[in-house]
């Protein structure tokens, strides 16, 4: 097991399309939530009267690294304003969350875990030397109250116990004091053991339960990665056990698991919540860093290049609470939603469809992903995820130029300040790998030893489109880390309104993406694929100008609407024989195709 360490925003900066994606996020909802959304703007965390629990910490968790990655003075100042106000409310005894003495016993301790994690993120970006002592006092207070038996973990805190370990690991690395390990053990022992729950994951319960809650599960995948060291336990890859069960019974082609908002099974018309996408990404980032096992980096790429962009509008002002593999229209359901436990607006693109958790939380996806591009151990630097960026460390300045995942060529411009080793992870789907123009048989990891001075490395490979087996004898087209889907035209219908005191007003309004609902009933021949690469647009995952498309052949098949719905295709086609002439299908990246068919049958001749 090779463990890698993350760089911070002081060393790693996004470039190319990765930078543009973060700029779009900064100009969209995440970069403006403190101006337009009451639960952040008027939060109790900064002395207001709105939400004083998860929403401000969720938002800061993405807003802070985004601000520092972009080196944007205004964003950084606004992050500091929030952190200053939170710190100013910390009590003498260390308690930092905004609630009264009477409220503390019932206050869900998940917010303690979350704000401590966010303060670590802030410290790593800002190097604000007030912060380590503040986190230490929060956790010392937590230790005192848990060991006196005054508090017990319950509800979210109990199901998200491992979230406290980001701060505990940070404290222990700075000052290894015994109480930190004791606290770690108390938290784990009071937390949920997910092994007790897996029997509930094999078919949809369709009832809201802590044990099948998709965001709890997505977060949980990292529990061993973040806790085993502090608990003094050997690492056993327990996440793989959970991953396999989830994939088998709830897997989606875009790398996530159905959860709307509890596990939903294998149907291509069940959704998954955006919070789970970004939490699953964060889990995989830790799993890869701790184990160096490429399967986690590859799973991370699938989420980042498909499920994440799919759920946001191009301008990142709107998001879907639940995205679905086969969605032929994204409208409000009047009456019975298709989901297990989510409301009738969960499928819209909007400000806070269904619930405001994703509104606050989705912003962590891209910044933390950008921060996973390079990792390090000693004098070895690893390119973990090859997105365009620049790294500046004591060893070297490295500029990585690439349009990956849309194109598969990479230029590393290296200015070595002293001798160091560069490693580059090779994806398992790469074929015809070339290094500096020469064919290379390596399948796992490229290693370059550099002396001080200037160097350039050029890498390229090919990726073959392939059909991925899906349940119910359906197929999904995949090419490397990109999932491809048949896109459909739609009309954006703007909805401006106020509900429960929350205003939706352009650009922070809701939209129905109303599909034409014709000729979506596609089957595949897939006798050939032709890949066409275009320039990457200013909007990398553009819903109008996709950077790459795949041409293949298919035809219409007999496939009706789901019984009782006008905007949902049936779970499965009625027939698998062609009912039209053979036609060329132009498939788009899943993240670009807002309305799409992703899981389709093969046409029976
Ligand atoms: Zn959410």
Sheet of most strands: 9 strands, antiparallel
Helix count, per DSSP?
Answer: 17
Radius of gyration: 24 Å
**Ligands and ions found:** zinc ion
Number of strands: 29
Mean pLDDT across all amino acids: 97
Terminal-residue CA separation: 49 Å
Uncertain segments:
none
Query: What structural class do you assign from the helix and strand content?
Result: alpha+beta
What coarse outline follows from CA principal-axis ratios? globular
Binned, the helix content reads 25-40%
Range of strand content: 15-25%
What does this structure look like?
The chain is an alpha+beta fold. Among the domains are: 377-462, Immunoglobulin-like (Sandwich), CATH 2.60.40; 466-601, no CATH class. 31% of the residues lie in helices and 22% in strands. It has 17 helices and 29 strands. Strands 17, 18, 19, 24, 25, 26, 27, 28 and 29 form a nine-stranded antiparallel beta sheet that branches. Strands 2-9-10-11-16-13-14 form a seven-stranded antiparallel beta sheet. The chain has a five-stranded mixed beta sheet with strand order 1-7-8-12-15, with no helix packed on it. The termini are far apart. The model has no long low-confidence stretch (mean pLDDT 97). The structure holds zinc ion. Zinc ion (ZN) is lined by residues 273-275, 357-358, 361.
